[in-house]
# Entry
Amino acid sequence: MIDLVQTLAPSPDLHRVSSDPGVAWSGSASVAIDAPPDDAADNSPDATWSTDAVRTGRCGAVTPRIVRLPDATYRMYYTQILPRAGHPEGALDYGNATTRILSARSEDGWTWTPEPGVRLNAVEGGAGFFRVVVTDVVPMTDGRLRMYYECAPGPQSEPSTIRSAISEDGLTWTVEPGHRFGDSESNFASARITFLDDGRLRLYLLERGTGIISAISDDGLAFEREPGTRIDQSGTYDGTVVFAPEVVILPSGDYAMFYAGYASASRAFILRATSPDGLTWTKADDPVLSPAGRWDGAKCSEMCLCPLREGIDDHPYGMAYEACDGTARDGRGVWRILNAQPAS
# Structure
């Protein structure tokens, strides 16, 4: 959670919450960002379509990252999945799909309007015609914003790294040279930043096959891996993969992490863990959000929190999360970004 109303400085205050966001949430309340229909005549970044249009899962909208801006409005960065030339299945064959990073604006953190223009495409981001995936957007000390993103220049069997881009206005982005984290052998994704009291930055991210790991940096550019695994792949709800850590600082000073866990290739949950220091984490027994609705019947996955301007049904925090309806083969289907709120 990045809240620029609390501070413009890159500090832990960006992640502090005034109350616990909740241990149980109700999802599928409404569609925040929909997937393009299969036959969309207009696929411009700011296009909108009927919720009832025909979608088979070829296109998708995933990885919401919300920044509350200094004027108390909101910008969501997200990833749109599209078929790549020669691979018409698109998101149904994700490793061979292409993506682009788009954005949307909101007055209340709940209802979203896509913005014109592409924030970052795969070619600009160093991924050729494969995938760039937004993972976080944070402020810098000089007032600019830095976006961290996954650069995947091939199928999921090939290595992917974390890279970055900078912007003066949050709309036009310039890719920075080099990798922020990665190597020539592993697959890294879903990187999120937490600012520490001592001025350093901690990067939480997925190492595929391991779980959620962390790395530390003095400048946000060069990260050194920290020993150990923060969240392993060992539970009832996350035995297949864990990723997408959203870390907030509770009023007690402890950390709470919301993250995505796959129990199997066709079933995903939003889970929670807590920590006194950001390094040693204790998993909650039960999911925060489970697949159950029309649009999230198979998977509740990568998410982010945001403080709501007026509160929706008197809730101070909302959640946007990527969800799969499971309407295609093997538990696949249409990926959309949905809204959720704490269960009453």
Remarks:
- Residues 2-342 form a domain with the Tachylectin-2; Chain A fold (CATH 2.115.10.20).
